[in-house]
């Protein structure tokens, strides 16, 4: 029996039907989805199990690890720093962080970093949780890293490293020298009353957390979107950028381990509700007035950044991609929102969230059944399409 709770506004009943069908037809375990239109919440649904083994039911305030969906919220923090005049997107990182210039990185701009063009998708030395919890040590490790390609020539998904580098830049420009997780909590989560954290704090948050359920890799590979197969094949080859980025940059860690969840990983470690994520994107899709986002910053986020000189093929994800200021943009066969102005971030396992400035709409889907489709997971797409049918 599928237990789904929450509500939808009149005209969005088909979204609930699509959400329920994910449990019936696509073996969803536990999930939540939320959508806003012009500042009004029109979809807020949750259902299934927060923990399949114990049969703990997913509640209204159940939070879940959303992996790289975190990148979108982390980039909101960088956007606020830009709005406050603390940094410029086209300025060199080394202006704010002189040590970063080592090993030929002196010319890399913040825009290139946020567009995954910096050539730093992984570090030569694996990063431990102890290092992540010691920002000075992590910053020194990043500063000593050489680019793996000429910055600006190619792009390749900076799965883990993007958030670490963003956080160190923010520590350098913030007058209070806060990490990105601390800045996000004080300047975005608290003012907007968001149930979202980058680095869990306290046992109470852990008690409300859904347990991630990992897939059967063989069965998952057979059912994965064909676009992902080159990526998944590359992961199995230890010499590739893909494998080194996803399999060798971090020590093997249980994603349900409190130590992992409490570490600040702004690129992939955020925990929260679909409602909170969609609410943050709702504010940003309408120009960010609640956070005093500058119009120039909003315009910059909405526009696509220039592609690298050698084109749109991502050396890590092994498919054509387009990025802008920390976000994924609609491009080629990757379509979401109403136009190229939409911006968002997918998460490993099937989560996705984005803003659509044209419709002043925001959407988020999260799940605790880890799927192998990093992009366009059928569960998320079903619900997203139902929302847009209603819009």
DSSP strand tally: 12
User: What is the averaged pLDDT score?
Assistant: 93
Provide the gyration radius in Å: 19 Å
Q: What does the main sheet amount to?
A: 7 strands, antiparallel
Strand content: 5-15%
Which bin fits the share of residues in helices? Answer: 25-40%
Which segments are poorly predicted (pLDDT under 50) over 5 or more consecutive residues? none
- SSE class: alpha+beta
Kindly give the count of domains.
1
Distance between the termini: 30 Å
What is CATH's topology name? Beta-lactamase
Order of helices and strands: EHEEEEHHHHHHHEHHHHHEHHEEEEEH
| Number of helical elements | 16
CATH superfamily: DD-peptidase/beta-lactamase superfamily
Describe the structure.
This protein has helices at residues 13-25, 69-83, 93-96, 110-114, 129-132, 135-143, 161-173, 180-192, 203-207, 217-223, 229-235, 241-246, 258-262, 274-285, 295-302, 378-390, and strands at 4-8, 30-37, 40-51, 56-57, 64-65, 196-198, 270-272, 323-324, 327-328, 343-346, 352-356, 361-367. With 391 residues, it is an alpha+beta fold. It has a single domain (4-390), classed as DD-peptidase/beta-lactamase superfamily (Beta-lactamase). Strands 1, 2, 3, 4, 10, 11 and 12 form a seven-stranded antiparallel sheet that branches. Helix 2 packs across helix 8 (180-192) and helix 2 runs antiparallel to helix 15. The longest helix is centred in the first third of the chain and has 15 residues, at 69-83. The chain is globular. The mean pLDDT is 93.
């Amino acid at each position: 029996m599928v237990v789904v709770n929450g509500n939808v506004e009149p005209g969005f009943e088909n979204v609930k039907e699509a959400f329920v069908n994910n449990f019936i037809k696509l073996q969803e375990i536990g999930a939540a989805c939320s959508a806003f239109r012009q500042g009004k919440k029109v979809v807020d649904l949750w259902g299934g199990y927060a923990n399949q083994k114990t049969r703990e039911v997913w509640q209204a305030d159940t939070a879940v690890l959303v992996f790289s969906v975190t990148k979108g919220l982390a980039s909101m923090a960088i956007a606020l720093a830009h709005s406050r005049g603390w940094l410029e997107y086209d300025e060199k990182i080394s202006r704010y962080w002189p040590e970063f210039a080592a090993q030929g990185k002196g010319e890399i701009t913040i825009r290139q970093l946020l567009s995954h063009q910096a050539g730093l998708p992984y570090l030569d030395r694996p990063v431990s949780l102890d290092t992540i919890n010691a920002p000075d040590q992590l910053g020194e490790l990043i500063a000593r890293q050489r680019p793996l390609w000429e910055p600006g020539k190619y792009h390749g998904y900076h799965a883990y490293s993007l958030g670490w580098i963003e956080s160190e830049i923010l520590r350098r420009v913030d007058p209070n020298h806060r990490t990105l997780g601390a800045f996000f909590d004080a300047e975005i989560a608290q003012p907007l009353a968001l149930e979202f954290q980058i680095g869990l704090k306290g046992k109470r948050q852990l008690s409300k957390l859904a347990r991630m359920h990992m897939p059967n890799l063989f069965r998952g590979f057979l059912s994965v979107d064909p676009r992902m197969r080159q990526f998944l094949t590359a992961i199995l080859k230890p010499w590739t950028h893909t494998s080194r980025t996803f399999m060798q940059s971090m020590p093997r860690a249980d994603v349900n381990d409190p130590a992992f969840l409490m570490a600040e990983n702004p690129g992939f470690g955020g925990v929260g509700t679909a409602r909170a994520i969609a609410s943050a994107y709702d504010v940003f899709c309408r120009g960010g007035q609640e956070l005093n986002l500058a119009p120039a910053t909003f315009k910059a986020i909405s526009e696509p950044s220039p592609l690298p000189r050698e084109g749109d093929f991502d050396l890590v994800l092994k498919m054509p991609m387009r990025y802008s200021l920390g976000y994924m943009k609609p491009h080629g066969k990757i379509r979401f929102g109403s136009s190229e102005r939409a911006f968002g971030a997918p998460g490993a396992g099937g989560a996705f969230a984005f803003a659509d400035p044209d419709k002043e709409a925001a959407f988020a889907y999260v799940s605790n059944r880890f799927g192998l489709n990093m992009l366009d997971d059928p569960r998320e797409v079903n619900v997203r399409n139902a929302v847009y049918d209603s819009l």
